[in-house]
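Why run this: before we spend reagent on co-expression, it is cheaper to look at a predicted model of the complex and decide which construct boundaries make sense. The entries below are exactly what would go into the expression plan.
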Amino acid sequence: MTRERWREIRALIERDIMDGVLEPGARLPTEPELATQYEAGRHTIRRAIAELAKEGHLSVEQGRGTFVQPRPMIDYPIGRRTRLRRNLGAQGIDVTSEPFGADRIPAEGRVARMLNLSEGSPVIASRRLSHADGVPVSFGTLYHDAERFPDIAERRIGLGSVSAVYRSYGIEDYLRGQTQIHARPARSEEARRLRQHPDMPVLVVRALDRELDGTPLAYGQVIWSAARVRFSINIDDEDAG
Amino acid sequence: MTRERWREIRALIERDIMDGVLEPGARLPTEPELATQYEAGRHTIRRAIAELAKEGHLSVEQGRGTFVQPRPMIDYPIGRRTRLRRNLGAQGIDVTSEPFGADRIPAEGRVARMLNLSEGSPVIASRRLSHADGVPVSFGTLYHDAERFPDIAERRIGLGSVSAVYRSYGIEDYLRGQTQIHARPARSEEARRLRQHPDMPVLVVRALDRELDGTPLAYGQVIWSAARVRFSINIDDEDAG
DNA sequence: ATCGATTTGTTCGTATGTATA
DNA sequence: GTATACATACGAACAAATCGA
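The model came back. Tokens follow.
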């Protein structure tokens, strides 16, 4: 029995992807076909494919096949003024987003602390999924004080960007306060939403937006596809671009 | 036969960890034992264990066993003044680091551009592995202009922190310029260095340090364990703490 | 220092369920 | 409905790493 045959196969397939023998979007031969081609068992093939899928090179779809996946990386600047549309638009990326639910819930723990509200005060949690050039890149929840922004969920549906919603409340400018970033494996439901393989990690970004005088505006948690996004922190730049 | 039994088993083990039935550091029963206990095949058990290991709850060691892993999260602030020791020391974390190699190589591509050197100019690449409270948390490479800092590798061995090395060159202060963050699955060698499971992701941080007048000092790429670190970006704070 | 027992890692074979076209 | 292709599952054997006698 050979030693770590799945690694050899993994490397062979990866080489074919890198060399362009397997073009982005192309379908791999079926697992039994690969098994005979590489003179290995189907388990071994699956292990190699799983590894490549985890790294974002392949996307495995039950009942359809296994496909070579292109991996565009977008660069998302984080700074004093962090604006999704303006920042990505400058890179020639078309950003769209769709709401998928909003709730009026009592603020608890971190949300209450960050928004400077007492535990249990009502907040509006509005959820959105964002696409860049048609591919899902992130989804997340934004929490607002329900007393100050009672109808924010409705306004977010009508108006495109967060900035536009704030302008409708008379807030012309706001700044990004604290931002926290960490990474972890994706839950299966998150992977499904982002249309990425379950083994690909996600980046979790928690952030607080403030008015110019320091008043907390919104606290949010956004899950980003680690395969599709990279963050840039430009501390000096006024516009974070 | 096929009702995703491995997910059930995964959930059962995870519950035992969360409830404290399995304490941090405890060894799980062997795979064959778990197989009989849960009335499943060994493959199914392994699938459940692999998932939990990927999420950082378990650490699997060939020839020894499978252990419940505690997951301390350290908070690493990124700001104008980003200093490993001072920032983590303030959290009561003991930071140590050891060099593991240095080379004099020609600058290429990104390194040359960031350091404002012409392609092929000699740079010193010095590599270090850092521990927080004895656990490896990151390793990476720092690139310096070889003309300006010819013996930086030697000085980094003698002196503890990066700041101390710069002071020995007469540089009293420096600022963090651009920082880029992204996440990806760990290569097996990286996982070994960080003593984390191969399926746990890593965070990749690329950063440029500048002198107060803007002159590039060093460009670095550091791989952080996603299981053990979280980044905080405090844009307003002068000391990023 | 060596051997053997223990435990996880890899591989094969085979069968059956589930999703897609 | 049928065929195709991936997902899950069981069993068995051997390899590799670890540890203690």
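Chain B has a mean pLDDT of 86. Chain B touches chain A at residues 54-56, 73, 75, 78-80, 175-185, 199-203, 226-227, 229-236 (CB under 8 Å). Bring this page to Monday's planning discussion.
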